[in-house]
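User: Predict the complex.
Assistant: Input components as received:
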Amino acid sequence: IRVGYPEVIYCENKTIPQIREIIKFMLTKNNNILATRATKEMFDKVKDLDNKLKYNELGRTITLEVNEIKKTDSYIAIVSAGTSDLAVVEEAKETASILGNKVKVITDVGVAGIHRLYARLDIIREAKVVIVIAGMEGALASVVGGLVDKPIIAVPTSVGYGANFNGLSALLSMLNSCASGVSVVNIDNGFGAAYNASMINQL
Amino acid sequence: IRVGYPEVIYCENKTIPQIREIIKFMLTKNNNILATRATKEMFDKVKDLDNKLKYNELGRTITLEVNEIKKTDSYIAIVSAGTSDLAVVEEAKETASILGNKVKVITDVGVAGIHRLYARLDIIREAKVVIVIAGMEGALASVVGGLVDKPIIAVPTSVGYGANFNGLSALLSMLNSCASGVSVVNIDNGFGAAYNASMINQL
Amino acid sequence: IRVGYPEVIYCENKTIPQIREIIKFMLTKNNNILATRATKEMFDKVKDLDNKLKYNELGRTITLEVNEIKKTDSYIAIVSAGTSDLAVVEEAKETASILGNKVKVITDVGVAGIHRLYARLDIIREAKVVIVIAGMEGALASVVGGLVDKPIIAVPTSVGYGANFNGLSALLSMLNSCASGVSVVNIDNGFGAAYNASMINQL
Amino acid sequence: IRVGYPEVIYCENKTIPQIREIIKFMLTKNNNILATRATKEMFDKVKDLDNKLKYNELGRTITLEVNEIKKTDSYIAIVSAGTSDLAVVEEAKETASILGNKVKVITDVGVAGIHRLYARLDIIREAKVVIVIAGMEGALASVVGGLVDKPIIAVPTSVGYGANFNGLSALLSMLNSCASGVSVVNIDNGFGAAYNASMINQL
Amino acid sequence: IRVGYPEVIYCENKTIPQIREIIKFMLTKNNNILATRATKEMFDKVKDLDNKLKYNELGRTITLEVNEIKKTDSYIAIVSAGTSDLAVVEEAKETASILGNKVKVITDVGVAGIHRLYARLDIIREAKVVIVIAGMEGALASVVGGLVDKPIIAVPTSVGYGANFNGLSALLSMLNSCASGVSVVNIDNGFGAAYNASMINQL
Amino acid sequence: IRVGYPEVIYCENKTIPQIREIIKFMLTKNNNILATRATKEMFDKVKDLDNKLKYNELGRTITLEVNEIKKTDSYIAIVSAGTSDLAVVEEAKETASILGNKVKVITDVGVAGIHRLYARLDIIREAKVVIVIAGMEGALASVVGGLVDKPIIAVPTSVGYGANFNGLSALLSMLNSCASGVSVVNIDNGFGAAYNASMINQL
Amino acid sequence: IRVGYPEVIYCENKTIPQIREIIKFMLTKNNNILATRATKEMFDKVKDLDNKLKYNELGRTITLEVNEIKKTDSYIAIVSAGTSDLAVVEEAKETASILGNKVKVITDVGVAGIHRLYARLDIIREAKVVIVIAGMEGALASVVGGLVDKPIIAVPTSVGYGANFNGLSALLSMLNSCASGVSVVNIDNGFGAAYNASMINQL
Amino acid sequence: IRVGYPEVIYCENKTIPQIREIIKFMLTKNNNILATRATKEMFDKVKDLDNKLKYNELGRTITLEVNEIKKTDSYIAIVSAGTSDLAVVEEAKETASILGNKVKVITDVGVAGIHRLYARLDIIREAKVVIVIAGMEGALASVVGGLVDKPIIAVPTSVGYGANFNGLSALLSMLNSCASGVSVVNIDNGFGAAYNASMINQL
Ligand SMILES: Nc1ncnc2c1ncn2[C@@H]1O[C@H](COP(=O)(O)O)[C@@H](O)[C@H]1O
Ligand SMILES: Nc1ncnc2c1ncn2[C@@H]1O[C@H](COP(=O)(O)O)[C@@H](O)[C@H]1O
Ligand SMILES: Nc1ncnc2c1ncn2[C@@H]1O[C@H](COP(=O)(O)O)[C@@H](O)[C@H]1O
Ligand SMILES: Nc1ncnc2c1ncn2[C@@H]1O[C@H](COP(=O)(O)O)[C@@H](O)[C@H]1O
Ligand SMILES: [Mg+2]
Ligand SMILES: [Mg+2]
Ligand SMILES: [Mg+2]
Ligand SMILES: [Mg+2]
Ligand SMILES: [Mg+2]
Ligand SMILES: [Mg+2]
Ligand SMILES: [Mg+2]
Ligand SMILES: [Mg+2]
């Protein structure tokens, strides 16, 4: 990974010994660490390596902050639709934080109850960049895109069933957003959205 | 077609002589007539059959009202997103009208400029049933569904390009709507939505 | 949720503690409750909260009726093809009931044995609105649509294998129905169909 | 081609000179000829080769009967849903005829008006093998399959629009038919269905 | 099921008590029985009902022959490509047998070793109707179709991985077969193919 | 449109009279204008409205600059793979320019000749934000993403044939980019990418 | 382009002036030239540039041989199924030739008439590398792969209709070939197959 | 399998007794053996058959070298992107080795860190044929194809999530590679790539 500060490990498809080895090596370099898609079992089998290692169960991240991170003044707003999208929200939040960003999280503002979104609109509008996380029909990205004049990074989630086709409906929705200023990352890719938002927030 | 009043012809894939023959025969029965997906050329080649035949160019419909139609008191609201959806709007409007429904049309209220939707919300809420017509990401169906407590019939349109896949994005969006009370008809099927809405409006 | 009477919880992707918390909170408001996609284990872990909580195993619903529900005079007909569609039938029936509708259920009338459908046609025709639930090729929606002059809400189910692609065949069939008056909800969405039908039945 | 009697040419993607050449050569062998997917222009440019060459415009076939064909006693029933499926009906009929089969054609019996199918049921039941041709949701194959105890060869057609995806909806429907005894050929493949039916009819 | 002789149960998505109930009821009618997609566990929980119930583990069928079945003189050839297709072969064989057909099974003749197919060609050519079962690229159907002048019912199987997409590659292959006389049933549908072949074999 | 400066018209699916009407109205407001997806014929039929109207044939844009646009100091780099992607490049360039951005365009640096990309790397690295436009396999986005530490907005193009499926291959590639910092807009959406980049460039 | 000898132009999506410009420039370098996907009109508008420019109408290639090409001793066999695949055959042949390879072309050996393939098997087996070109179900690649012990490059073609989905059926077939030694290039990509085969032939 | 030396077993969908039987039989013929897609459990249940049987856990292969294999002088380079692709790398390596090829493996050179690829370029360029294994967006195949003048066999892997669709993104990428000289095998098909490469390496 090119960024200086945290080293990043993508744990999916890696064995626990592999992950242990990588973390051990990273610890020698005295860098902050972010591991994504880490199961609880993975964490339990590596946590003895350093007692500052932290696990976010919902977000499936392991983090280690050896160097204190100075946060930005401007912030990233992470906006999400339903409670089922929270895993992706947490992955994005942990990523943005360890990359040194101030983050504000606004959840449960799906378009079926749009008044809840309006109640939080000011906090979204004052962000420097906005991450919108939504499954099912992903309409939230367009609605936020229409109301907020900031770059929007949309994350479709695989939440839903049937004709949702594991996130395809939200993905296509977001790619076809009629609101300008919306770009899209892979389904469930909270990490990628936050990495992207961090770059923009720190320009 | 089962409804007593208008006879309906679906012109796609039919030759002009076939359509002429069908209309001629219908005229003998003294019924109202609705022909959908009719090209201008088709109309020009049949209009001599009866001088009451009317053509809606945008909606591609031919209609004939031999028996005056008494309209309902309650009405169907037809709500659409962009100017490119107007062909489907017109098909729905012509269908609903000749089936005897009062219709109110609210266009250009796509979610990218959601304030325009709010400005027309009262008129939508007072309808007995609502048709929502939208292409691209089809978010309008969910937003209207969240704001209005009436049955919503959503029509995805093939308007868009690229990852829109000829209406697939709007179709999947609408099928996965997080707002309750939304059901869906085929892409560009303004006729079907109006037929359905008419049944509900006349219950 | 906008409807006054029951509160609705969608249990998929929620943890048992989350569901317990939501139900506890709802109980303080003295409302009826409907939880869909609830596993037996979920029910076992929340049933101590109120001894009126009921579980429908096939339909995967938890319901609580604290306020007696006055049922409509008109009724919703729920029509289904095979025994494998019964889970969706039960979800629809529980939803329609707690929303205050009289419901009549007609099962096992798939088109391979169409005489069984004819035997029950009167009861379907007298409904105010009809829900048709079918998997595999979903032909039942078109056949009922052709025989019955009422609004039809079609629910494709994921029952089948191979080229059924988890409900895609029935979904596409129903969207392309040659019978007028058929609208469609998501694959396996018995809840959505019943919510929709309830709105129409109570117009 | 293995069958002794007619030689078959598939004209799609062939140039007129190529087709002329093939027919010329076939004429030397004194066999019957069937050319499918032939445009009017193709016919006009080859008809001078033999004045017995006949063109079926709707079915896009060219045929030549130099040897009188003795027809079977048993017959193939070709059953179709809408007027838009007639091109495929004609291709199947021409193919079956030149292969020496007695054919009975029953059109316009789509499931939206199922009484019309019942009116013709006897003639279908007495066939030795049945070809069912339908577009849109292709429900006719299942309905006929449920009512008739003969092998059914189903031909999905590309008739329809939107979520029909050029015949995919009818194709999937037919492959998932809940009625036993239905097998399927390619979209719009009237030739293949008739060839198949002919083999069965002449067993 | 319409055929007089065996009653057929499709066990997928049915509970063991449901299946027990159905078999019990069938036993009272003194008919032969065929149950498909039955797990070993299902069989173990119903075998006490009648000691003539037999289980085919590979084919996942339960059969009961109370009335001796007189077999046809002509036979159905079941031809398959690889050892992984054998489950479907067995389902087809059991179905064809209990429907009263003489059956000859030719396995392991996939096109990668085409000489093995040639070695068995005579036996295939003398069948009245041929079932070809193949996964992966499904080429066997076309090759057999080109060599044998009998109706071919092709069954794509879900055997394979990657771009096989659970049988889609074989399904599309078979639908597009360049050999005439090939019709297709659903992926893995050994039952449907045999039912169909039986109809033809007994014409 | 929310941005103060230029008004934007999307010409696809609009008639020439409609476009004339919109431009006429915009001219009264003395704003800059950007029309995308405009055919040459459209331009010819509106250019009399104001002699400052300019047409970019390759990019299919009409622009009008009534208010001089002050350009940013930082710039947007637009990087593209092949000559066939130039239409999208031009749409992006015109959009970014009229929105007030300095733009540098680097074309013909596809990964098949990666040395050409290296030769231009400095100019890309010094941009504030980078737009990468590529068809076929879209690998360029990942390669630039790996070499440049700036936010990347990737635009898949529909250039290619066969398994390209009108841009699907590049779209999926870009969504799955192994390089961090890449977000994606719709196929061929040069406008959207530039709008997005402009927001970031002007933060 | 990396290869020393011919320069290659891919004409699709290029304007005639662009192509003229490129050829003019290439002529100054005294290299052989290959242009693929060139229309007749393109050729007519560039042929004045050099009277050695040749056009292959079926293969849509323009070639120029300024330096005599010494051909390899070993040869590439190009094997194809039907007459409709000939355009791809010609593109492959022209490419292989100008790259300096001896080529032998074997056409019309589709698996529906497999004896024709056997008749030509020796010539295929003696090639150093084999290109197999087939549309529809693409079975030819597997059959040749099973009979010939040489590397096979398979080219699916878009020949077919319906469930062929523009070459998808042949593509998936070939990717899933049960015969070892088969690799695949894009649909209709005769150029790519020949380029690849040339590399192997000249190892 | 046609090659003389090792016999190959594809273990997926085979039972342990079946595999035991096959290996036992092969041992009698004194040939080398390669079994792919073998689970650890399979190996444990067959390893008593011969104490030279070896298991590669990551590559899921069982091998037996009874006849010493003389390796080629030229070598196959196996190049891969990420650590998650290693299973496919190992399958390819074991296959190529037992087929008698010298193999050099270059891993962890994905395009996000392209300098690592450059560091190993010499070793790749000196190979006779190159296998490129990559998941996600599969860009590595195009980059290597652009830098190396050898035949490239690309293997898409199913590594990734979301819009990766189990390897579809890498598959389409590789099929659409803008670099000449790239052909493709099935997703995760390390065996097929190595078999193919071996043929070329031993020409
Ligand atoms: N089975 C279901 N399928 C689709 N949507 C549902 C289902 N059950 C409940 N819902 C919707 O989910 C909402 C509750 O979601 P939640 O707040 O996440 O529990 C309800 O108001 C319904 O609109
Ligand atoms: N409409 C059709 N659809 C599919 N296959 C056809 C059709 N018409 C003819 N064929 C097949 O194409 C073969 C002739 O192909 P060809 O030699 O290219 O003219 C015939 O033997 C038939 O098997
Ligand atoms: N090429 C384009 N692709 C996608 N969206 C566009 C494009 N050009 C303009 N738009 C959007 O379309 C809106 C104008 O749409 P309309 O009011 O229908 O002309 C603009 O505000 C943009 O958000
Ligand atoms: N028919 C073809 N299909 C795919 N790629 C091709 C084809 N013809 C040429 N190419 C490739 O396109 C490159 C030239 O592209 P361009 O510079 O855009 O003309 C050549 O070097 C080939 O790699
Ligand atoms: Mg915005
Ligand atoms: Mg609502
Ligand atoms: Mg009806
Ligand atoms: Mg039947
Ligand atoms: Mg045959
Ligand atoms: Mg980067
Ligand atoms: Mg071979
Ligand atoms: Mg190369």
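The interface with chain G takes residues 12-14, 18, 156, 158, 166-168, 171, 186-189 of chain D (CB under 8 Å).
Let me know if you want any component modeled separately.
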